[in-house]
Amino acid sequence: MNNSHIIYIPFTGTGLHGGYRGDSWFAHRIKIFRNYTLKSLANQSNKNFLLWITFRPEEEKNPLTSKIAEAIEEAGISYVFTFNGLMYWDDKFTNYTLKTKIRNSLMMLWDCWVYKEWKSPIQLLKLSWENKNKSLLERLSQSLQTLKEAIGSDFEWIYLTRIDSDDMFHKHTIDLIQSEKPKQRQALIFDKGYVYNIVTGQLGTWNPPTNPPFHTIIFCGNDFFDARRHLSYYQNFKSHEDIPRIFNTKTLDINSYMVSFHGKHISTGWESPLPRYIYQKIKYLPYCYTMSGRNISTRWKSRARKVRNFMIGEEIQEPEKSQILKDFGIDISQIRENIV
What we know:
By secondary structure, the chain is α/β, with parallel strands linked by helices. The protein folds into 2 domains: 3-96 and 131-334, Spore Coat Polysaccharide Biosynthesis Protein SpsA, Chain A, CATH 3.90.550; 97-130, no CATH class. Helices cover 34% and strands 19% of the residues. The chain has 11 helices and 14 strands. Strands 3-2-1-4-9-6-10 form a 7-stranded mixed sheet, with helices on both faces. A 5-stranded mixed sheet has the order 5-11-7-8-14. Strand 1 (3-10), helix 1 (23-42) and strand 2 (50-54) form a beta-alpha-beta unit. Helix 1 (23-42) runs parallel beside helix 2 (63-75) and helix 3 (98-115) crosses helix 4. The longest helix is centred in the first third of the chain and has 20 residues, at 23-42. The termini are far apart.
């Protein structure tokens, strides 16, 4: 059976700020990717996959992008870059009510304050009104054409696995995914995993109340490379939390992925202010371990008293911690760069 397995990483073009939080954020994210995500992929027991990374058009001429290519080539992994932005619906732009626009503006203003990278109020207002999803079909068509030219299109089935540029897979995760026989409208998902605090070295269990952003969608080859059929296959997908509602899902083994915390996130936090913690508990408790169709965000911080993110469970100690990290391709003794 002629199948292809593609690991998809949206590097830029996601979320607020036009999908880009500045060169210092990009450089920081590249370090995280190189030291953690890429090492976890290079550590896979099965390397029969293609890495597909997407960027905004602006990153094609950004010299920082070449550092990503150099690292991937050094790791010996096959890859394709496309520069047409995000390849699925961006859930930060699900609706365009005045409330949403105000929220987006305030969130971006807060980021400017936290990271000391300022944008003009006019620019923030413009980005708040942007509709990236409107051009999705055109952008997807262009990227799929690039992908087709790079790897061909004569595949019966294509496994499309999503992972963020700062997260990790266990060394047997690719084998686990490929061991599943392909079926039309099937998606492979995970439940619980790990969370690693790169800043402090803490490792804990990760217990998301909704479907986490690690999933594999199985496409018929003909559907995958046709942009209209590709989008149609997603139906009314708006967030990774929607996957169990839209597809026929199978949950694979637990602890096959690891979320990282490194201090400069779009959505993940090790700690949350106490008011935010209470809000999340109330909001997500009815949806625990089901799909909610609501996006989790633990990014907001303030001077209010902080408590540990409620999704973090048991903290794991030595010697078990070192073995788990090793299974994800992490050797702390070899990581010497300061990433915070």
